[in-house]
Amino acid sequence: MNAVELHARPSADHQGKLARTLALLHAAAEHGAGVVQASSLGAEDQVITQLIARERLPIAVATLDTGKLHAPTLELIGRTEAAYGLQIARFAPRDGAVVHFVTRHGERAMFESVDLRKACCALRKLEPLSRMLDGRSAWITGLRREQSQQRAEVPTFECDEHGRTKFNPLAEWTWGDVWHHIGTHGVPYNPLHDAFMPSIGCEPCTRAVALGEDFRAGRWWWEDEAAKECGLHVKHQGVAA
Ligand code: SF4
User: Would you say the CB of residue 230 lies under 6 angstroms from ligand 1?
Assistant: First the structure.
């Protein structure tokens, strides 16, 4: 059974949610060259990219190539570009920072402490994200309220700590809505979702989840629940972490 067969179950108000998502994407497009979709290449972001392409919205699409992604995730970039005739910009960490960190702490530093894990996320994700968003007035994410307790209050749009508008157009979608849309429209997706990985990050830090486990249980599974964000979407008194 693949992920579509397993999860596709539209909620009663799916069409209403889709209409609100499209309205948000059109509002985001009004930022012109100032807006970017920061795609994780996960199921939610693949839905957003498909809608951007379908609506022919002038919204750039970009992703973080951390140097630790699974091969199927990297392969999905090319498949998505080919499907929609668009280019996905890749933002990678600075070579010198990675070499320095790995030389000092080793390839498996993320398993040694939360601080080292966060340091790895800072240099492989946060610094490249800051370059991706540099000069932008708005960005688009695939955050959904259902994904975790920390995300339960995610608004459909907000002002981030740098004054940019952050659009979360799938905030109210369920996992069933996401897969219904993917199945209905043939959206290309990461085959790791078929291998029970609902939330896909870097290869060392993602595992499959068991039936009944939380959506993000396979991310940094060795850490306490409270530590489980990479910092891309965490606010600390107005400062990104
Ligand atoms: S998810 Fe893991 S490998 Fe990726 S940047 Fe964070 S700690 Fe490093």
Answer: yes
3-state secondary structure 73-87: HHHHHHHHHHHHCCC
Coil, strand, or helix at residue 16? Answer: helix
Please report the atom of ligand 1 found closest to the CA of residue 201.
1
Residues 6+ apart with CB under 8 A from 37: 45, 48, 49, 52, 59, 60, 61, 62, 139, 140
CA distance 7 to 13: 17
Atom of ligand 1 nearest to the CA of 219: 1
First to last CA, the chain: 38
Nearest in space to 53 (alpha carbons), one of 235, 210, 186:
186
Side-chain half-sphere exposure of 36, counting CA atoms within 13 A:
22
Are 222 and 113 in contact by the 8 Å Cβ rule? The answer is no
**Could you read off the pLDDT of 158-185 as tens digits, one per residue?**
999 999 999 999 999 999 999 999 999 9
- Taking only the tens place, the pLDDT of each residue in 176-224 is 999 999 999 999 999 999 999 999 999 999 999 988 888 888 888 888 7
b/e for 159-189, b at 16 or more Cβ within 10 A? eeeeebbbbbbbbbbbbbbbbbbbbeeebbb
